[in-house]
């Protein structure tokens, strides 16, 4: 069976990204910079770059995907399983507000590991299971094709760890940037990583090698 390639994109910058607020399943609109990032992303792709575009149903991801799709001509298919982790009572708050309002829950969250869920939220393990079920389903559905998935930093973290067999409890020693391009491969149940954190389009728009797309 030929591999499926997934171009996994993080949404553009949002107002809550700037303010350090936990977004989770709540939403914050793209900043002007975030929309410009999405426009720069769109210049990397054309109708032949992928056969389908999927997105989280949250606005910051869906709007990013829609800007790209306006260039490629694809329909954006939203799937709630591609959402960020539900952070429950922390959502909409910044770090100082969380520590002030929920000091005990904050410490439990910091030290609780992958199976700890913030009240009214979900654990990292639960999030990862949800995300991976969706991504593997899409990879099998589009066997031998190239598809795009527009989603969130937490989803990228889950996929990166799953692909490289990094424990969900291990401290995160990698970053994921807004509007970054990350290329994964799926073949016969095995994931591989081709490219991580590519933001060349944000630095020198137009001078890009699109050969692997």
Give the topology, please.
Layout: E1 4-10, H1 15-19, H2 32-42, E2 52-55, H3 59-72, E3 76-78, H4 95-101, H5 103-111, H6 124-141, E4 146-151, H7 153-164, E5 181-187, E6 190-198, H8 200-203
Parallel strand pairs: 1-4, 2-3, 2-4
Antiparallel strand pairs: 1-5, 5-6
Helix pairs in contact: 2-3, 4-5, 6-7
Task: Write down how many β-strands occur, each being a DSSP E stretch of 2 or more residues.
Answer: 6
Distance between the termini: 19 Å
Report low-confidence residues grouped into runs of 5 or more: 205-213
Q: Structural class of the helices, strands and pairings?
A: alpha/beta
Main sheet characteristics: 6 strands, mixed
Give the C-alpha Rg: 17 Å
Looking across the biggest beta sheet, what order are the strands in? Answer: 3-2-4-1-5-6
Along the chain, the helix and strand elements come as: EHHEHEHHHEHEEH
Overall average residue pLDDT: 94
Tally of DSSP helical segments: 8
Percent helix range: 25-40%
Walk me through the structure:
Mean pLDDT is 94; it is low at 205-213. The radius of gyration is 17 Å and the shape is globular. The chain is 38% helix and 17% strand. Helix 2 (32-42) runs parallel beside helix 3 (59-72) and helix 4 packs across helix 5. The chain is an alpha/beta fold and 213 residues long.
Give a quick rundown of the structure.
The chain contains eight helices and six strands, in the order βααβαβαααβαββα. With 213 residues, it is α/β, with parallel strands linked by helices. The C terminus is likely disordered.
